[in-house]
Every structure is written in C-alpha cells, then in structure tokens.
Amino acid sequence: MDFLETYYNTFSEEERLLSQHGQVEYLTTMKYIHEYLPETNNARILEIGAGTGRYSIPLAQEGHTVTALELIGHNLDVLKSKLTGSESLEALQGNALDLSRFGDNTFDMTLVLGPMYHLYTKEDKIKALSEAVRVTKRGGCLLVAYCMNEPVIIRYVFGKDNLQSSLAMITNEWHCKSGPKELFELVRTEDIAELDSHVNAVRIKLVAADGAANYMRDKIDEMDSHTFEKFMEYHLSTCERPDLTGASDHTLDILRKL
Questions:
Q1: Average pLDDT over residues 6-24
Q2: Are 192 and 255 in contact (CB under 8 A)?
Q3: How many CB atoms lie within 10 A of CB 103?
Q4: What is the distance between the alpha carbons of residues 60 and 57, in angstroms, rounded to a whole number?
Q5: Shortest CA distance to 144 belongs to which of 67, 46, 57?
Q6: Is residue 73 over pLDDT 80?
Q7: Rounded CA separation 140/120 (Å)
Q8: SS3 assignment, position 51
Q9: How far apart are the C-alpha atoms of 146 and 117, rounded to whole Å?
Q10: What are the two backbone dihedrals, phi and then psi, of residue 28, each rounded to the nearest 5 degrees?
Q11: This prediction's pTM
C-alpha cells in the first residue's frame, strides 16, 4: 500500500479525467453506467476504489444512493471535501478484498473502476471480483475497469525507445510483468475472460473505455469542441468492437450477476 499512497498523494487522477483526452474515458464510462442502471431514480450503487469521487459524486447528485469505498486516505479526504451535504453519499475507507461490512445482494450496481489496476495475483483479482459480485443484487450489473498490456508495449516500450530497459519485465509472449512498485497491473482480454469464469456473473460487453485517446492525447487536448464532439461520436460507435478493445489503455468489463 505504501507505493500506492505515495503515488496518489502526488498524482491527480481528478485532473487526468478532467483533461480533454481523459474525458473520453470518463464520458464512455458514464454512458455505460447510465445504460445499465436499473430504471429507477434512486438506485443503490457501490463504488469500490472511488478515488476522489469523480464518478460517485455526480451519481449521488443525480439522486442515487451511493456508497464510496476508497483505500487511500488522501483520496478519501479529497472526496469528502467536495461534498455539500445534500448528496446521499456515504464515504468509507476500505479494501476491495474485504467487503464483509456489506451483505449479500445489497447493491443495484457495483463499480470497480480502479482496484483491478493494483492487484497483482490471480487469487487477489478473483477475490475482489467475487466480493463485488456477492454484494450486487441478482440481475444487477457490475462495471469493472482494467489497464491493458498492449498500449504499454506499443507506446512506452517501442514508442519511447525503452526496449532494452524493459526486457527484464516482459515475458516471451510480450506480456508485461508487474508488482506493487510498478503500480499498475496490465492484462489482456483473455486474462479478463479467465477471471470472469470464476464468478457467478455473465459478461454483457467488453468496452474500450478510451480507445485511441492516449495514443493521441496531445492532439485530442488541442481539439476544438466541434472536433472533439465528432471524435467522441467515432469513439462511441467503435468502442465495442472486439478488434479494438485490447489496444485501449483501459477497458470496461460489464457483467450481470446471475
């Protein structure tokens, strides 16, 4: 946890999602949250790894009852500082691997939009996913975010001439190896499918949350509003294509509990 605390005490995830290229991931994720929320104005939502509240707070402001669970104290403090008191939002410190404070079949929707980035063993990933499924109501949806392997190989290893310094951290199959000091666990689409096979849920969609946005972030940040609107139209029309999801920096695995 020390590596994560150091990272999130200095890096602003909020600013990343507010940048124009970061808006691609945010707008895409919010689109699918709204698409799979139950048809009610007051759904009960759990966000595991809520960060500084970029998703939890707007959802609470829409009238939903939100529980925001966050591991890092600094992030939780920032989230709480943004609350006005009018939102139906409970902010708690906690770990994705232990949701024992919540009963089975409690939430209409569960969001896991960060924890899978920082779990490095298959056992921990299955545990976190199983816990998220357990607390979700039968028929309810889960949205689970992952960081993908191929963009790092393409943009960092080759795009930034880091091949020689990176070889020790890459398998013969070009899969990046990572641990807590590397901060981010990188997966492929088949890795996500394998995790899904261990839980009582079925995949609805696997979505490229940001698609090409991080490959061309400078260009996207320079776009005028009309061009950015058209880029979003393109992105949202292609983000479900299976030939593109593995090359996205972030994917969104959308599951329904059986």
A1: 72
A2: no
A3: 10
A4: 5
A5: 46
A6: yes
A7: 27
A8: coil
A9: 6
A10: -65, -45
A11: 0.92
pLDDT digits (tens, 9 = 90+) for 132-156: 999 999 999 999 999 999 999 999 8
**For 88, phi and psi rounded to 5 degrees?**
-90, 80
- Categorize the per-residue pLDDT at 231 as very low, low, confident or very high, splitting at 50, 70 and 90: very high
Q: Which secondary structure element, helix H or strand E, spans residue 204, and what is its range?
A: strand 201-208
Give the tokens for residue 160: 């930034």
Dihedrals phi, psi of 79, to nearest 5 degrees: -55, -50
Based on C-alpha coordinates, what's the Rg of the chain? 18
Q: Which residue has the tokens 């969104």?
A: 252
Q: Are 17 and 57 in contact (CB under 8 A)?
A: no
Convert 126-172 into a string of H (helix), E (strand) and C (coil): HHHHHHHHHHEEEEEEEEEEEEEHHHHHHHHHHCCCCHHHHHHHECC
Q: How far is CA 36 from the centre of its chain?
A: 16
Q: How far apart are CA 132 and CA 142, in angstroms?
A: 8
List alpha helices for the chain, DSSP H.
2-10, 13-18, 20-36, 56-61, 73-81, 122-135, 149-151, 163-166, 189-196, 217-222, 225-238, 242-245
Q: If you average pLDDT over residues 86-94, what whole number do you get?
A: 95
**Contact present, 254 and 142 (Cβ < 8 Å):** yes
Q: Which residues pair with 94 in a beta bridge?
A: none
Phi, psi of 67 (to 5 degrees): -110, 120
Q: What amino acid is encoded at 240 in this protein?
A: E
> What does DSSP assign to residue 167?
G
- The H or E element that residue 137 is part of is strand 136-148
Q: Which two tokens stand for residue 252?
A: 């969104």
Q: Are strands 136-148 and 186-187 parallel, antiparallel or unpaired?
A: parallel
User: Torsion angle, CA of 191/193/195/201, rounded to 10 degrees?
Assistant: 160
Strands 250-257 vs 201-208: parallel, antiparallel or unpaired: antiparallel
